[in-house]
Amino acid sequence: MLDSIRSFFNQRMHLGTERANGAQPGTDDAAEQQYRLQVAACALLLELAHADDEFSTAERDHIEAVLRRHFALDEETARELLQLAEAERESAIDLYQFTNLVRNSYDLGQKTVLAEVMWGLIMSDGEVARHEAYMLRKIANLLDLQPGYLAAARKNAESR
Fold first, then answer.
1. Could you tell me the sign of the dihedral formed by the alpha carbons of 26, 31, 36, 40, in that order?
2. pLDDT at site 4
C-alpha cells in the first residue's frame, strides 16, 4: 500500500521536489502519514458504498465532494485518490489496515465527522440499505466509536 501511495503523491503533490528544496526532516513522514490516512478514510467510504453491491453515481459524487472538501484536494487529485483507494480496498483482505490507521490517528471529533460523512454517503442515494447500515456499525465499532456518537452523527447527516 505504501509504495502506491508514495508514487501517487510524488506525482501529484511533488513530495520529491519538497525534499530537494530542503524540507525539514520528518516533514515528508508527516505528509506521508496524512496521505495514508486519506487513502484509508477513502477506502472505508468505498467499502461502505459497495456494501449493498451497488456503487451509484450519487455515492461516487458524494465521496469525491467529501475528498475535495475535507482534504482540500482539487477535482483531479480527488478522483485519483478515489481510484487509488479503490485499488487498495479491492486488494485488502479485511478492513483492519484501514480502521487501525484511522482509529490510532483520529481523535474522537475526527472519527465523529467521519461517521457523519459515512451516514451522508449512505443517504446520498435516497435509501439506507440494511447492508450499508450494518457495515457502518461494523466500521464504527472497529474505530472504537461509541453508539451514541454514531447516532449523533446520523442526526447531523439527516439534518443536512
1. positive
2. 56
Quick one: pLDDT at residue 8?
53
Domain annotation for the chain: domains and CATH numbers: 2-159 (1.10.3680.10)
Contacts of 102 (CB under 8 A, 6+ apart): 37, 40, 41, 44, 111, 114, 143
Tell me the three cell numbers of residue 90.
Answer: 479491492
Query: Could you read off the pLDDT of 95-113 as tens digits, one per residue?
Result: 999 999 999 999 999 999 9
pLDDT at 96: 92
CA distance 70 to 152: 19
d(Cα 39, Cα 101) in Å, to the nearest integer? 10
Average confidence (pLDDT) over 38-47: 94
Give the pLDDT mean for 29-56: 89
- Cα distances (angstroms) measured from residue 55 to each of 17, 34, 38, 69, 132: 36, 26, 20, 21, 11
Nearest-angstrom CA–CA distance, 97 and 105? 12
All three cell numbers of 83, joined, read: 481510484
Helix (H, G, I), strand (E, B) or coil at 54: coil
